Amino acid sequence: MTPPRASRGDPDPAARPRVDLHFLRRFLKIQSILFPSFSSQNALMFLTLLCVTLLEQLVIYQVGLIPSQYYGVLGNKDLDGFKTLTCLALVLIVVNSTLKSFDQFICNLLYVNWRKNLTEHLHCLYFRGRIYYTLNVIRDDIDNPDQRISQDVERFCRQLSTMASKLIISPFTISYYTYQCFQRFKHVQLRVNAEPAAFYSWHQYIR
C-alpha cells in the first residue's frame, strides 16, 4: 500500500532541509551569484566591511585597556593624566560609534545588492523555457514560486547581511585569542618549571 501523496502546499517530511554536502553546494552556488568576481562591487564592499570590522575590534581592545590605566592615574593622583585619559576615552567612544554605524551601513548596502542580484538571477531562470508554466501548472510539490522568489530571497539576504560582519571577524578573533592562550600556557609552564629551567640554563652556561 503506497502512502498518500502530499497535497499542494504540504511539506514533504523527506525533503526537510539538512546541513549536508548538498546544502554546502547550494550555498556555494548562491555565493557565486552574490560575488560574481573578485573585482565586483559586492566583493569590494565585503572587503571594506572586513577592514572596518577589524578596525572596530582594535578600537574596542583599546577601550578595554582604559580602566586599568584609570586605576594607575587615580592611584598617583595625576590630574593631568586623568584629563588626558578621559579625552582619549571620549575619542575612542566616538570612533567606535562611528565605525559601528559604518558597519551597519555597509551591511545594508550589501543586503540591497545581494537581493537585487539574486532576484534577477532567479527571474532569468523563472522565465527561461516556460519554466513559470511548469512550476505553476504541472508541478504540485512547489507552491507559490513567485512568492518564494520575492520573500525567501529577502529573508535570506537579510539574515546573511546581519551575520556578515560577525562571520568575517570570527576567524581573526579565534586566531588572536588562540595565540594569546598559547602564550599564557607557555608562561604558566615556565612559572611551574622555573627551577628545572634555571638549572638547565646554568648547565649550558657552564659548558
Automatic annotation (TrEMBL):
One Pfam family of this chain: ABC_membrane_2
Protein name as annotated: ATP binding cassette subfamily D member 4
Keywords of this entry: Membrane, Transmembrane, Transmembrane helix, Transport
Molecular function as annotated in GO: ABC-type transporter activity; ATP binding; long-chain fatty acid transmembrane transporter activity
InterPro entries noted in UniProt: ABC1_TM_dom, ABC1_TM_sf, ABC_transporter_sub-D
GO biological process, one term: very long-chain fatty acid catabolic process
GO cellular component: peroxisomal membrane
Ranges of residues in domain ABC transmembrane type-1: 31-183
Gene: ABCD4
Domain of life: Eukaryota
Species for this entry: Sarcophilus harrisii (Tasmanian devil)
